[in-house]
Structures are given as structure tokens and as C-alpha cells.
């Protein structure tokens, strides 16, 4: 059986004072209300000896806060690639004196509803709803009346809830710019078609990356030289797409892969074709997957700032929580989408165009 919880009444009985006196002493108001030093010392000594722990939830509720936040994700917690989302959120919460309750749904709507209800039943001050991959999703009704932030996901319909996502559009522009600055004018897309919006349905990152790429090329009067729409951005699909590309363009010059796994497949088929990266073909990609720096040569790629995303989501949520407690205005307009820069990790996969 578990140890019986020591209450304030237990401390008062053992110290020979009233529960009110114990409450005042342990809340730091003993001097203010002229409780003698001897009594204060006795209360503290008895409290420590008995192992008394204050009921933080009750104290918090009396002050309008429990100093706890909820973090509900689909597959973030069990994903190696996006684990830093939680790391950033945990560190930011701890720095501000908050605890983070974490739950994972594995994409099940019923599990998500149960987790949200459980966290709201425990009076969390706010909730972060996170996704492994940036996607559009409906806002659960449970979040309409609580401070909430969407992390790595965007609302399907207009909402007052803000979102924190990577700046995929800016990364797309910068990716194309890196190849243009190296003198490349024939840039082939692996993962999306050359036309506007030619990406797999529901791929938010792909759509925004493609938009940025096309805008950067358009500034130079260019269009993508070719493109391959790919539903699942996996190495084997990148391999097949680039193999098909080489039949039409034996010397493609530059590839812009829509994620690193596609680039892994591209590396393999280019090597088999006797083409060298970057001497014959330059490659730029996205995500900074763990193997990107171990390729030979290393893959130049735009990293998703997972830790910064997690940290920013907590900071933004606390702005909403504190604004709600004070009745003051929120720092940013409700529903704002906060886009964080994706760092460009330049390695050895880009060379000047021949």
C-alpha cells in the first residue's frame, strides 16, 4: 500500500498550532502576520520531518493557474526525426516553471479526444496540438475554449488558434537560389511536378516548397526543367524517379529533391550511372535527415528546426495563458501563423554548373 499523504491538518496537530497558522507560515506570510519566529521554525521543522507536500493543483487553482501545459501529438514522441519538438517544448516549459503533460494518439481521432478531455479535466493552463509532418487538420472542438497552439500543423478552416510551422516557402526559394547562384539553369525537381501545385495531395511542405522554388526561378525567367510527382517520399521512389529522369536527360546538371530520403535514392542511381555528385550533378534537399551528413559527399539540405519549433510553441502558448489571466491583449493576433527559418546546411553536393 502507498504511504498516506501528509495533510496540512496533520502538520498543525503535530506542531500544536492551527491549520491557518501552518498555511500562513508555509506560504511565507508568517512575518507579515506577526507569527513568532519560534512558531515558524517549529512549523517548518515539523513539516520537513513529516514530509509534507503542498497540493500544487489546489494552490494553483486558487490563483487561476495549475502551471501545467498539455502536449498532444500524433507520432512525434516516438519519432526519431522530430523528437526535438518535444525537447524544445520541455525545456521552454521548465524554464518558465511549468510542467508538460505529453500524450500521443498515433493518428487515432478517438484517442486524441480522450487525451484532450483528460488534460482539460486536470485543468491544464493550455494545450499544444502537434503533428509529425506539417499538415492541414480540423481543429478539435475541445480547443475552442482553452488557450491552444497548433505545432507543425495548420488549421483546415479559419480559426483564432495560432500555429507554429517551418518556413517551407522561404526554404524553397533559398534552395532554388543556391543552385541558381552556382550557375545552374536546368533544375530538375524530384518529388513534385514542374507546374504550380503539382505535388501529392495534402503535402503542405511540398506545396510551399514548390511555390518558393517556382518564384525564385521565375525571377530569373526560368521554369523547372522537369519534375516527378511522388506520393511517398522514400529512397526507392527517388531512385526510380531519377532513373526515369536519366533516360530523358542523361546529364541533368542539378536536382532539387523534396526531401532527403528522395535524395538518398538519387545518390544511388547517379553513382550506378557513373555520374558524380557534385561534379556531374548538384543536389539540394530538405529535412536534414540523420544520414544526410554521412553521404559522400555530404548532402546540402535545409533542416527543420524541430527544437526551435517546440520552444516557440510553448512561449506562444504562455503568452496566450498570461493574457487570458490578466485580461489583457494577446501579443500576436489570434490565428497568426508563425513561420520559423529552416537553416541551410551547406555540405559537398553543390558545384558550379559546367
UniProtKB/TrEMBL annotation:
InterPro entries assigned: HTH_LacI, LacI/GalR-like_sensor, Lambda_DNA-bd_dom_sf, Peripla_BP_I
Gene3D superfamilies: 3.40.50.2300, lambda repressor-like DNA-binding domains
Signal as UniProt keyword: no
Keywords linked to the UniProt accession: DNA-binding, Repressor, Transcription, Transcription regulation
Domain HTH lacI-type: 6-63
Entries under SUPFAM superfamilies matching the protein: lambda repressor-like DNA-binding domains, Periplasmic binding protein-like I
GO molecular function, one term: DNA-binding transcription factor activity
Protein name (Swiss-Prot/TrEMBL): Transcriptional regulator
Organism annotation: Cellulomonas terrae
Amino acid at each position: 500500500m502507498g504511504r498516506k499523504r501528509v495533510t496540512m491538518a496533520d502538520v498543525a496537530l503535530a506542531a500544536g498550532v492551527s491549520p491557518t497558522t501552518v498555511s500562513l507560515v508555509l506560504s511565507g506570510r508568517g512575518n507579515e502576520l506577526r507569527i513568532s519566529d519560534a512558531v515558524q521554525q517549529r512549523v517548518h521543522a515539523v513539516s520537513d520531518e513529516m514530509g509534507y507536500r503542498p497540493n500544487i493543483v489546489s494552490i494553483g487553482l486558487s490563483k487561476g493557474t495549475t502551471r501545467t501545459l498539455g502536449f498532444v501529438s500524433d507520432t512525434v514522441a516516438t519519432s526519431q526525426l522530430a523528437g526535438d519538438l518535444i525537447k524544445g517544448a520541455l525545456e521552454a516549459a521548465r524554464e518558465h516553471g511549468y510542467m508538460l503533460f505529453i500524450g500521443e494518439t498515433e493518428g487515432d481521432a478517438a484517442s486524441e479526444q480522450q487525451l484532450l478531455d483528460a488534460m482539460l479535466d486536470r485543468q491544464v493552463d493550455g494545450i499544444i496540438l502537434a503533428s509529425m509532418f506539417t499538415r492541414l487538420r480540423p481543429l478539435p472542438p475541445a480547443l475552442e475554449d482553452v488557450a491552444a497552439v497548433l505545432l507543425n500543423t495548420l488549421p483546415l478552416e479559419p480559426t483564432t488558434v495560432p500555429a507554429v510551422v517551418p518556413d517551407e516557402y522561404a526554404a524553397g526559394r533559398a534552395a532554388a537560389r543556391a543552385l541558381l547562384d552556382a550557375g545552374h539553369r536546368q533544375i530538375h525537381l524530384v518529388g513534385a511536378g514542374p507546374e504550380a501545385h503539382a505535388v501529392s495531395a495534402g503535402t503542405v511542405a511540398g506545396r510551399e516548397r514548390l511555390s518558393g522554388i517556382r518564384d525564385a526561378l521565375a525571377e530569373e525567367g526560368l521554369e523547372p526543367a522537369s519534375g516527378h510527382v511522388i506520393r511517398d517520399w522514400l529512397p526507392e521512389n527517388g531512385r526510380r524517379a531519377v532513373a526515369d529522369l536519366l533516360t530523358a536527360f542523361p546529364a541533368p546538371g542539378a536536382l532539387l529533391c523534396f526531401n532527403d530520403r528522395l535524395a538518398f535514392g538519387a545518390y544511388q542511381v547517379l553513382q550506378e550511372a557513373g555520374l558524380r555528385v557534385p561534379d556531374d550533378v548538384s543536389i539540394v534537399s530538405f529535412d536534414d535527415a540523420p544520414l544526410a551528413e554521412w553521404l559522400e559527399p555530404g548532402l546540402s539540405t535545409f533542416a527543420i528546426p524541430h527544437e526551435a519549433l517546440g520552444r516557440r510553441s510553448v512561449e506562444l502558448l504562455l503568452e496566450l495563458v498570461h493574457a487570458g489571466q490578466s485580461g489583457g491583449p494577446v501579443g500576436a493576433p489570434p490565428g497568426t501563423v508563425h513561420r520559423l527559418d529552416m537553416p541551410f546546411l551547406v555540405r559537398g553536393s553543390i558545384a558550379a554548373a559546367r
